[in-house]
Amino acid sequence: MFYRRKYYVVSNDFVEVFNKHFVENNLPNQLKNGARLIGRWMAPHSETTTEIFAIWEYDSKERYEEIERNVRNLEQAKKVNAWYDSQGGRERVYK
């Protein structure tokens, strides 16, 4: 098995938007391609930010790499990119 911990630190006023994006776009895209979500949690990071993190399981590192290639090549990736654009771009979201 291969496990990945994916995390984000987001502004508290952005948590709801970010979680909706995860449920509507990222989660279905990952599951459709064979990733398994072990769990997803949120924890205060500071007075103004929240850490959101997930543990994903894959059969192997090679399978993880294959799934990631597929996720990025799918039509679904266009939805994810459009979402980032609607939020002011990846750089703004990452800040």
What does this structure look like?
- The mean pLDDT is 88.
- It is globular, with a radius of gyration of 14 Å.
- A three-stranded antiparallel sheet has the order 1-3-2.
- The chain has helices at residues 15-32, 61-73, 75-86, 90-94; strands at 2-11, 36-44, 49-58.
- It is an alpha+beta fold and 95 residues long.
- The chain has a single domain (2-94), classed as Alpha-Beta Plaits.
- It starts with a strand and ends with a helix.
Annotation keywords:
NIPSNAP domain-containing protein, Dimeric_a/b-barrel, Alpha-Beta Plaits, 3-stranded antiparallel beta sheet, alpha+beta, 95 residues, globular, NIPSNAP
Topology:
Layout: E1 2-11, H1 15-32, E2 36-44, E3 49-58, H2 61-73, H3 75-86, H4 90-94
Antiparallel strand pairs: 1-3, 2-3
Helix pairs in contact: 1-3
What does this entry show, briefly?
The chain is α+β, with helices and mostly antiparallel strands and 95 residues long. It has four helices and three strands, in the order E-H-E-E-H-H-H.
Helix content: 40-55%
Dominant shape: globular
CATH architecture field: 2-Layer Sandwich
Bin the strand percentage. 25-35%
The major pleated sheet works out as: 3 strands, antiparallel
Overall strand count: 3
CATH topology: Alpha-Beta Plaits
Give the strand order, joined by hyphens, for the main sheet. 1-3-2
Please work out how many helical segments DSSP would assign: 4
CATH class category: Alpha Beta
Low-confidence stretches: none
What's the rounded overall pLDDT mean?
88
Return the string of H and E elements: EHEEHHH
Helix and strand content put the structural class at alpha+beta
Number of domains: 1
Termini separation: 33 Å
Rg (CA only): 14 Å
Protein name: NIPSNAP domain-containing protein
InterPro entries: Dimeric_a/b-barrel (IPR011008), NIPSNAP (IPR012577)
Pfam family, one: NIPSNAP
Organism: Paenibacillus physcomitrellae
